[in-house]
Specification:
Helices cover 33% and strands 22% of the residues. The chain has 432 residues and is of the alpha/beta class. Among the domains are: 121 residues, Methylthiotransferase, N-terminal domain (Rossmann fold); 115 residues, Transcription Regulator spoIIAA; 57 residues, OB fold (Dihydrolipoamide Acetyltransferase, E2P), CATH 2.40.50.140. The strands form five sheets. A six-stranded parallel β-sheet has the order 2-1-3-4-5-6, with helices on both faces. A five-stranded mixed barrel has the order 15-16-17-19-18. A three-stranded parallel β-sheet has the order 7-10-11, with helices on both faces. α7 runs parallel beside α8. The radius of gyration is 22 Å and the shape is globular. Bound molecules: S-adenosyl-L-homocysteine (SAH), iron/sulfur cluster and FE3-S4 cluster. The site of S-adenosyl-L-homocysteine has 17 residues, from β13.
Length: 432
Amino acid sequence: MKLYIKTFGCQMNMYDSARIRDTLAILGYTETDSPEEADIILLNTCHIREKASEKLFSEIGRLVKFKKEHTLMIVAGCVVQADGEELLKRAHAVDIAVGPQSYHKLPELITKYNRKKGRIAVTDFPAESKFDYLPPIQAIGASAFLAVQEGCDHFCSYCVVPYTRGCEYSRSATEIMDEARQLVKTGAKEIMLLGQNVNGWHGEGARDLGDIIRMIADIDGLERIRYTTSYPSEMTENIITAHRDVPKLMPYIHLPIQSGSNAVLKAMNRQYDRDGYLRISERFRAVRPDIAISSDFIVGFPGETDKDFEDTLDLVQRVGYASSFSFKFSARPGTPASIMKNQIREEVKTERLIRLQDLLLSQQKQFNVNTVGKELDILLIENGKEKGQISGYTPYLQNTHIAADESLLGQIVRVKIESATATSLGGRLVKA
Ligand code: SAH
Ligand code: SF4
Ligand code: F3S
């Protein structure tokens, strides 16, 4: 039996898809990349911006023609949590809809499913943790995700995540260690610790994420550790100094600021101001001067003035980012910001986004150009676009292509960087 699975949204959703794949493997489903031959078509969805949500419906429209009599169409993820019943009403092809905290129930739901008795949406937040019911994790390549924390208690005024993922939950240190060992045993060289608010981790068995990083660094065979996404004001000194003390921890920190204006940050309900953010980023640079800092930005938040936007550009100049994601504010149903009075016109949002992205892209290019001539370690992950080319990542998460044989995939090699664009590097193998 075949499973076709398509994932939208963030890395947490990619992690969930991998766990869903392993769960359904027990029922005998193997993955296929062609929906024609699938017995289950599964879409793992994202609700973060309107565009992300709308993509689901166009995707269902595209895939429905591959649905045969016996094919099950399953929708998982954040759209389901936000709007499961509505989704079943709007998309008749969907058989089962399951929220992000309930996908461990899929084997039972699938086995018992009978369309005539009614289609199903499971959107409760179950008392049990799904992690206790999932089969042991398997690494699929050299780089693996590990969810250590889920959910969010911050309630930024624009964001749906606290509603779709629920309140903050941290897995225990023991559980995380076991899963990290299992990932390394099945081939992972790099582990990316995931959480919607990862540096707010407060589970059993360790003081904070800094301790967790130090603990997993002891696993033999694990070469690289990363973590994302961090909330600026919850950063701890123990995490920052891990960048000085733990050689396996990569010199990269994703620290979303959203806006450089204090008035906008306040309206967003972000619990820090621009000076506080600058102090934290300077602290990272003090312990690890070469660290790459990245961020997320929202432009056109309700009430954002030209001056507020200029403050964001000014902050970007001050910090100097290695890479970034930036978005136009999207009014999400149920969030306080969606009903704020002073919404910004679409043309203004577009114009601001273009200006911000120009600046961010030029910084990103500069960061990449600065590595030309250096020798860096690259973890090789996948085949490149051209034949005879493979690609991977520097410690600073720069995508790098080299001419080399596929047999090197999964290894860390020394590469002399010879060229750079805003989005990637090119280099030559120094030694394997
Ligand atoms: N927990 C992370 C963010 C998770 S969502 C944090 O607080 O930094 C990823 C990014 O999507 C956010 O950083 C934000 O920039 C963007 N985003 C979230 N809601 C949005 C909205 N309603 N409109 C536009 N962008 C949004
Ligand atoms: Fe959303 Fe804010 Fe939580 Fe990030 S911190 S997930 S932006 S509510
Ligand atoms: Fe999207 Fe849910 Fe992630 S809304 S960004 S898939 S937490």
